């Protein structure tokens, strides 16, 4: 939406201030304006003459576009009770949704929330060449989801090391796949990569083919002494298994996919 106002005054300055007042702006606000009619004094103080007219045009900011679109979508979903809290940050805006019905906004494993964030980001960036970051969250859902994915990645990485088998995860957006990859990279002996296209793109976790495998002797590992088989513990922290900086996720194919530039 574009906001416009035409101010009228005895001179251009008065006309400009009149237009600012109509738009609810302070007189000191800096705006772009157009003089559409210059003031002319009456001849002999009796004939002719005309006031000055100045036009101000205000375009919606990306943040205003995003908030308006988000509100319209929620209202059309019959979620008028959901409140939108906003926090403007450098180069973007963060929205936090609160209310009794926010569960409908999250959807299955956050799919609805991700889609809503993606569409809102498209609207905010429709007319600007620079990227404006839009984040939509509710009840710290994204932080909780991130922790869940980190735990899942570690668990399946340890499983891959123990069993030597790979595991296919459910399809995820690029941001969630990166969380899994980062988590797996912290576990020596495991590696992750992505397979599938678009909506079916998912992470696979398996044993690292480059990892050194211990040699068994007399029913036990040669590097464990007489203690027999080395016990496996899924509770080992990544701090006890330092990451190999040379291992990279395979076949990721970039950082974009179904949801494009979706950030936390």
UniProtKB/TrEMBL annotation:
Compartment(s) of residence: Cytoplasm
Domain of life: Bacteria
Domain R3H: 143-209
Record key words, sorted: Cell shape, Cell wall biogenesis/degradation, Chaperone, Cytoplasm, RNA-binding
Region spans: Disordered: 202-264
Entry GO CC: cytoplasm
Single annotated GO MF: RNA binding
Family matches, as Pfam families: Jag_N (PF14804), KH_KhpA-B (PF13083), R3H (PF01424)
Biological function: A probable RNA chaperone. Forms a complex with KhpA which binds to cellular RNA and controls its expression. Plays a role in peptidoglycan (PG) homeostasis and cell length regulation.
Domain writeup: Has an N-terminal Jag-N domain and 2 RNA-binding domains (KH and R3H).
Family listed: Belongs to the KhpB RNA-binding protein family.
Stated name of the protein: RNA-binding protein KhpB
């Amino acid at each position: 939406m574009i906001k416009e106002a035409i101010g009228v005054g005895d001179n251009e300055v008065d006309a400009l201030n009149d237009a600012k007042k109509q738009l609810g702006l302070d007189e000191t606000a800096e705006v772009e304006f157009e003089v559409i009619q210059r003031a002319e004094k009456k001849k002999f103080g009796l004939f002719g003459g005309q006031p000055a007219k100045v036009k101000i045009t205000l375009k919606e900011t990306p943040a205003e576009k995003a908030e308006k679109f988000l509100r319209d979508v929620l209202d059309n979903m019959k979620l008028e009770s959901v409140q939108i809290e906003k926090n403007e940050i450098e180069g973007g805006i963060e929205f936090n949704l609160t209310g009794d019905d926010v569960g409908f906004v999250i959807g299955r494993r956050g799919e609805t929330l991700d889609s809503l964030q993606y569409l809102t980001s498209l609207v905010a960036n429709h007319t600007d060449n620079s990227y404006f970051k839009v984040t939509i969250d509710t009840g710290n859902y994204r932080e909780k989801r991130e922790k869940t994915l980190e735990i899942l990645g570690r668990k399946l990485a340890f499983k891959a090391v123990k069993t030597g088998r790979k595991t296919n995860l459910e399809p995820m957006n690029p941001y969630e796949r990166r969380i899994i990859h980062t988590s797996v990279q912290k576990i020596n002996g495991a590696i992750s990569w992505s397979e599938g296209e678009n909506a079916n793109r998912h992470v696979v976790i398996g044993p690292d083919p480059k990892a050194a495998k211990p040699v068994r002797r007399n029913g036990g590992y040669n590097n464990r002494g007489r203690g027999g088989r080395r016990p496996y513990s899924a509770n080992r922290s990544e701090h006890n298994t330092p990451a190999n900086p040379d291992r990279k996720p395979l076949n990721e194919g970039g950082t974009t996919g179904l949801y494009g530039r979706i950030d936390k």
